Amino acid sequence: MARILTGIQSSGRPHLGNILGAIVPAIELSKNPENESFFFIADLHSLVSIKDGQLRHEYARAIAATWLAFGFDFEKNIFWRQSRVQEHTELAWYLNCFTPFPMLANATSFKEKSEKLADVNAGLFTYPVLQAADILLYNANIIPVGKDQKQHLEMTKDIANRFNQIAGEDILVLPEPQIDERIMTIPGLDGQKMSKSYHNYIDIFLAENELKKVIKKIVSDSKALEEPKDPESDITFKLYSLLASESDVETMRQHYLNGGYGYGHAKQALLECMLDKFAEPRRKFNYYMENPEELESILTTGEKKARAIAQDTIAKVRKVLGFSS
Ligand code: ADP
Ligand code: TRP
Fold first, then answer.
1. In the chain, what are the domains?
2. Cα torsion at 156, 160, 163, 165 (round to 10°)?
3. What pTM, to 2 d.p., does this model score?
4. Nearest residue (CA) to ligand 1, atom 22
């Protein structure tokens, strides 16, 4: 049995890119009866950038509701908020002391972010160590992540190796990343990678009229309605082809090539396709957002299950480090 583990930061409401690029594929993996899945909300990681507790809490709820809306089986698996299991921070400190400074200083993500952000705090610097703790605490084997996380996973393995070597015992289990090269980067409204940071994302849980306004903002060229259009270079068409059935995509492609079909028509078709495809997740998402006690109770159950495993690892680590009597 493989233990799958992944986390998503609570630094915004999940968008179509997060959903198609991370949440749905992870849920698919979790459906394999051979796998045991540990999915959590990385709210401690989001403290690096978000200092408003209420806002972070709201985002954490929205992320939890999204996992549930897309059918994550929280009874078979483990689903929790990182901040509620203190062992994450405890292990992170121990691992900090086994992490060479240059490894963190040379991390691509740190270098890129520290150039852009106004608040370059030590949390941003040690972010990969907390991520290593998240993984190593649960003896996870497979970590489904996006390509951008590859280096963080290499660091996790290096840190675990150093720890095991110095401790003289194989206490920490070395994980493997699972990076699905087939998952494409979902384009945003402007054609760049869809991302919270670029403000080009589609929140599929918006009310219908709001969603319609967002879809209208998808950038297109200025070809007139009658003119034939190039489906391959158009963002609305790309998004539609990620969601619609093969035959519907083919029909839209022909409309583009024939002309007499405007971008407004394509956007309306995209809206209808989203409302149809995501009808059930939208209903469930709203249900969990309107019933926070139920969401809380699911997460609290998960936290208990997670804590039991985390405490076991921490006990071994404390012992080998000479911190237990
Ligand atoms: P954002 O770029 O909006 O801040 P995150 O970095 O929090 O998103 O990403 C969370 C997860 O969603 C990661 O696993 C990432 O690989 C995936 N993801 C984010 N944006 C996209 C996208 N446009 N296409 C595919 N996957 C994405
Ligand atoms: N750093 C990951 C991201 O930004 C989120 C994350 C935190 C994570 N801890 C993790 C992912 C542990 C996998 C395993 O997407």
1. 2-185+291-321 (3.40.50.620), 208-277 (1.10.240.10)
2. -130
3. 0.95
4. 17
